[in-house]
């Protein structure tokens, strides 16, 4: 099998499973218990937190462990909005291409009467900064923007939007789930109030992530309880936290790894475009993370291409794993103004650390012969 769906999830890094197993076997006590086993778990938790903080450039006390990015996003938006609303800043500004779960939260808030705006994107998937400047006004308490889009890989102008948010006194939250591990990241240097991430996107376990929250920023907890300094109640998932820390420790030279993957991705896109007519890459005109290729083969429906890929032993998807399988075109492509039939042809190939040059050569040798006859039919049909 060749796995080209790393934006959906990644395989565990070496050492992650062993570290988790060891914690489940020997470190299973509750970190809040006062007896020696509890104190041992508490020390393991502190060590993992310190290691996560070191890898992400935050203070240990700034990392709040959550069940993943979805929960971290909810905690950031609901928790920061509560304080902002009390300060007379009820409006929240999102981008129109946030993760589906995050947009669903925005819609729930809008239905409850919270003023919510969405910044659009240009045809290449890049955020429309003019619209951002128009929408981020004096009544805005929170701006929430992803660092890299999960479908297109387009890198969003976080620093520019942070400047707009801070100029009006609003807080800034960044969903960095598809960014961390693919490019150098440092919470302190980013200068925003809150960042979400999920361990399983960077070769850690599923069901664990974090909200990084700048020291001193008021947050209303969404789950009551004394854990995580009263910011997120619930017994800490120590095996998963230890696995998360192990995955971050294993990241190594992120820049060098990302450059290698970007080179493979570029070779893949160039090769497919040389071999087949009508191959179009979404977001190609904008800066993108190097692992992601979101493309269409003429107007061949995505399921037809995915079926051929499966035949070749390649795992890929038609877009976000959470919404693939549905017949509705991606909201990201709709926001980019992509016509419906083009959007329904979108296939996402997302590379990762395990992807090799041989994988790409194999794909370039085997996929075009399977798709070429279909594309001829497709063209004849369209003519
Ligand atoms: N945000 C982004 C940008 C994502 O890609 C994802 C995962 N697809 C999430 C949030 C949610 O992460 P999780 O499912 O781990 O909570």
Automatic annotation (TrEMBL):
Obligatory cofactor(s): pyridoxal 5'-phosphate
Gene Ontology MF terms in the entry: cysteine desulfurase activity; iron-sulfur cluster binding; metal ion binding
Listed Gene3D superfamilies: 1.10.260.50, Aspartate Aminotransferase, domain 1, Type I PLP-dependent aspartate aminotransferase-like (Major domain)
Species whose genome carries this gene: Paraburkholderia lycopersici
Family the UniProt entry places it in: Belongs to the class-V pyridoxal-phosphate-dependent aminotransferase family. NifS/IscS subfamily.
Highest rank taxon of the organism: Bacteria
Keyword Iron-sulfur among record annotations: yes
Protein name: Cysteine desulfurase
Keywords for the protein's UniProt record, in alphabetical order: Iron, Iron-sulfur, Metal-binding, Pyridoxal phosphate, Transferase
Catalytic reactions of this protein: (sulfur carrier)-H + L-cysteine = (sulfur carrier)-SH + L-alanine
Residue ranges of domain Aminotransferase class V in the record: 2-363
